[in-house]
Design goal:
The protein has five helices and five strands; from the N terminus they run ααααβββββα. The protein folds into three domains: 1-94; 95-132, no CATH class; 135-213, SH3 type barrels (Roll). The termini are far apart. The protein has helices at residues 3-68, 79-94, 98-112, 115-132, 205-213; strands at 141-146, 153-162, 174-180, 188-194, 199-200. Helix 1 packs across helix 2 (79-94). A hairpin with a 7-residue loop joins strand 3 and strand 4.
């Protein structure tokens, strides 16, 4: 057998060996990319549908019964949701005047007298108030703090500032920061740190949340004039 034929066969075998891992890697990358696109869209549609069904189902039996007088067995999707939104707007309007506020306070005090209902009502109201809180007064910016010890940093979100000079000299200028846990940024703990010890991060709150959820996989690009060098130049 000529030497050139042997070399050609060895080269073809080598290229075939390398092409298989490349094809598997490319297939895996395409599959993961498709999942990254499909899963969030599907999950969003599913959650929105569950919310719609829940809101629509609150008053749907009443509406279906009223419509059933004229059209037996009829059901119009969305009417229950519309009536629920009207009730929500009515309650919101009542809370803006004195009489309505007193009525709502009376209902709340009545619910809080029931042991189990009190816990459910307080927890639900607290979550909704936290979610509906003005984002301008919630997470203001992203900072780094040295926690849990020196030279170890934690990502935190500034919620507001405080000044209590009468307590201690170090509490004259404080930042209230929320330190989230990974991968659920809605859970975490509150820390009060001196403003001088908080390092501002040149990223948005949304970028910080994505960083927490991904466990640091989705790292924002901090290269630029605002970035701080971790090691001195040689």
């Amino acid at each position: 057998m000529p030497v050139t034929d042997s070399l050609d066969k060895n080269t073809a075998a080598t290229e075939g060996t390398y092409s298989k891992p490349r094809a598997r890697t490319r297939f895996k990358r395409i599959l993961l990319t498709g999942l990254v696109i499909l899963v969030p869209v599907t999950l969003t549609i599913y959650i929105l549908k569950q919310i719609f069904d829940f809101m629509d189902g609150i008053f749907a039996p009443v509406i279906d019964k009223a419509i059933g007088v004229y059209l037996p067995g009829a059901h119009v999707p969305g009417l229950g949701l519309a009536l629920t939104l009207l009730v929500v707007l009515l309650l919101g309007w009542l809370s803006t005047n004195v009489v309505g506020r007193q009525l709502i306070n009376g209902i709340e005090s009545l619910i809080c007298r029931i042991p189990v209902a009190k816990s459910i009502y307080s927890a639900t109201k607290g979550v909704l108030e936290a979610v509906s809180f003005d984002q301008g007064d919630a997470f203001q910016r992203v900072v780094l703090i040295e926690y849990p010890k020196e030279n170890i940093f934690a990502l935190a979100f500034v919620t507001r500032s405080a000044s209590w000079p009468h307590l201690h000299p170090k509490t004259s200028d404080l930042l209230l920061v929320f330190v989230p846990t990974t991968p659920n940024p809605t859970s975490g703990f509150l820390l009060l740190v001196p403003r001088s010890e908080a390092i501002s991060m040149p990223i948005s709150v949304e970028q910080g949340i994505r960083m927490v959820i991904s466990g640091g996989i989705l790292l924002p690009d901090l290269a630029g004039p605002k970035a701080v060098q971790s090691t001195p130049p040689r």
